[in-house]
Write a structure and sequence with these properties.
- Keywords: Disulfide bond, Endonuclease, Glycoprotein, Hydrolase, Metal-binding, Nuclease.
- Helix content is about 40%, strand content about 10%.
- The longest helix has 27 residues, at about 255-280.
- By secondary structure, the chain is an alpha/beta fold.
- The protein has a four-stranded mixed β-sheet with strand order 8-7-10-9.
């Protein structure tokens, strides 16, 4: 499961140029090494081609559609998922999880998704459920040029004030999103052989139809995303070598410890909930 979970991210290395699709920059991501062989790369390319018209330089999220499967950018004041809200949409993370479940239940991949076979769907579900519990993959703080938070009323307003889930908020030289993506070896060991297993067994099981679970958990993750921005002071947008971004400084001296504690909590939930989905699919 741990190696399968990286497959969806490895697909980000598939690009097109002049109508030719290829897996670019092998060796960049250690977690993708397992898939850097002709057969596996062909499977990654096939998945991306079915779910995108163009990827690579100057490709939008509409063209390189599979990349949008990894996130929802709900504004922090909204703690209930609604596909009509700015930052959500028909190819967002919640829809991607449900499309994967449909295929795993033996159904046909719903448009606009084009998922083929249970192996592919299971790899995607394993990754996407992890993304759903990474707070900055779901909740977003929208900012004006001065660094003040706002709640966009329209998709255009969300686009104009987006920081790509914290990717354009810099804490020193690090992207805020990257800090929350990074899972330390210590945290991983806690999940596998430490207290994580016992804590996972204590997570209350989801109730109701499985098709509703991802939406419910997305709302919960927005609440958690709000905690990610507490203890941060965000400044005015500035031009930089990596493009325009908002600088942020931690005003809470324990911000790192708070982040790691929340990461631990979310990893426990993600593991328990993946287990519930799998045992529901295959009792």
């Amino acid at each position: 499961m741990q190696t399968a979970a990286s497959w969806a991210d490895c697909a980000r290395s598939v690009e097109s140029s002049g109508g030719v699709w290829s897996y670019v920059k092998p060796g960049t991501w250690p977690s993708c090494k397992l898939y850097e062989n002709p057969e596996s790369q062909a499977a990654l390319i096939a998945f991306v081609k079915r779910n995108a018209s163009r990827c690579g330089g100057f490709a939008s999220s509409v063209q390189c559609r599979h990349k949008s499967y990894h996130f929802v950018d709900l504004s922090l004041p909204h703690t209930t998922y609604d596909p009509k809200l700015p930052g959500a949409g028909p190819t967002d993370l919640v829809h991607a999880i449900n499309a994967s479940l449909i295929v795993l239940e033996g159904g046909k991949s719903p448009a606009p998704f084009d998922l083929r076979g249970q192996r592919e769907a299971l790899r995607l579900l394993t990754h996407y459920l992890g993304d759903l519990h990474q707070p900055l993959h779901v909740g977003s703080i929208y900012l004006d040029g001065a660094g003040h938070a706002l709640d966009p009323a329209t998709e255009q307003e969300a686009h104009d004030h987006s920081n790509a889930g914290g990717n354009s908020i810099m804490v020193g030289t690090a992207k805020l999103h990257g800090l929350w993506d990074d899972v330390s070896d210590k945290l991983l060991k806690q999940m596998v052989s430490g207290p994580g297993l016992a804590e996972a067994r204590a997570v209350p099981p989801a109730k109701g139809a499985m098709a509703q679970w991802a939406a419910d958990w997305a709302g919960e993750s927005v609440v958690q995303a709000g905690k990610a921005f507490k203890g941060l002071k965000i400044g005015a947008k500035q031009a930089g070598a990596m493009g325009a971004a908002w600088p942020a400084t931690a005003t809470d001296p324990n911000y790192r410890q708070t982040r790691e504690a929340l990461q631990h909590e979310q990893l426990v939930k993600a593991g328990a909930r993946l287990a519930q989905m799998l045992t529901t699919l295959w009792p």
